[in-house]
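Fig. S4 source data, part A: sequence.
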Amino acid sequence: MQTEALGIITEYYLGDKSMSEDEYILTELGKKSGITANIAKGTVTYKNKEYTLSEITGGTEEKQTLEKNNLEEITLANAEKGSAEEALLKEQSVKAIIVEKEDKTNRAVIPIGFYYVAGTPSTGLVISDKMGDDDSNSKKGNQFVWILCSGTNGITYEKTDDNGTGNHGLASYWRNGYSSKQWFYTAVAPGYTNAGQAITGWSDNGGNYASVTKYGGFYIGRYEAGVPRDANFYVDSEGATYYGGEEKDSDAVLSMSPIVQKNTQSWNYISQEKAKKVSENMYKASTSVTSSLVDSYAWDTTAMWIESDSRYSGIGMDSTRYGNYIFNNNITANTLYAIHRYAKINQTGKENNKTNYWTYATKYKKGSITSGQILLSASIRAQYEFALNTYDDTNYDYYAYKELATGATDVTKVKNIYDICGNLSEWTTETVEYTVKEGDTETTLAVRCGGGFNNGGVDSIFHRNGAYYTTNNVFHSGFRPVLYIK
């Protein structure tokens, strides 16, 4: 009966809205075989048992959670006639408006097919695409957090138009305050033929200014994009094989959709081109939202919104405390992770012209290991298994680095968003056409934002890295989808 009710709710928001939502659902349920509806009482009877409509739709728990968080839900059933709220709710994309009781300018819009989970518009309102989901993501719905771009506690959406040319470039907040937080972004990196040569022309026509303006915000993935459960390279349990390389970036993934759920394997080893495509796949059939790879404006606006909270003052320059970085030793919870081994040349190795190298993880593990750079002394090596499990102790010192499963610990949660301050660096839709090596054909570079588990926290949430082609796939890069309401 719950499945049927969900279908009727969708029909209601796509069709005639002359009735209230509850009346429509009850009327349509009453037409189903074996179900008797009592519109006056707001109940249905099925197999000799009476249910309230809230019990069927999951509304009771949702309403209790809203009340607990001092929020008010506005739907067509209770919207003031002729109000701006009623007009917005008559849009085919909108299910409800959530308003803070203390400051009603702070509001979030719930699209059809999504349900309130936790938080407030000004502290990080969470929705899920699965009814009855909760803050712990126990129902395994895909969860997103509202970025408030209107109202008293909102942030100005960072979509810019450079001098009226129509070439969308850097958001002004980053350009004016954090341009130092970049690598291989404004100049070609050392080691290339054209080292030091200026790189200009970065642009990003992603995002959806019209949607943000109309609805007062947008949604960003609560977790880093995870590997879909039906993929042959999906893992989420201790001892499971960790996959890397071509499986995660093959043409076969182009028909897949990521999951945005707690405690699953982050989708790394995927190129920017494919991350963009699979993000768009998530809600391709939706009539209420459009999903896409996070654009640079959405990322910068999210970072500004986090930094505007006094609890996170200074996070733009140093995100160490809030991300999975080599210098953050506070992640001691019993978490799921993959271990990567790094061989760092010692003094003898330098004399022999040895080079540093990574050996990638082969197993997922679980435990209370700290998040820092861990020296793999001979006494603890037996705890770990790597693709290359040999050791050259003459020329190298060996370290382990931990890549967390999505949302594995609250240490990385800021305003209800996990891992955005550091775990995997994350692809965006910001790109530039450039020749990085003399004699090479022109190629497309793409921006990754934030820092990876192999970095120090001073990279920060505002870090921009333009070092990779849109076709590159690496172990320390992942991605995160955003939602724009249609």
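Fig. S4 source data, part B ends here. The chain has a mean pLDDT of 88.
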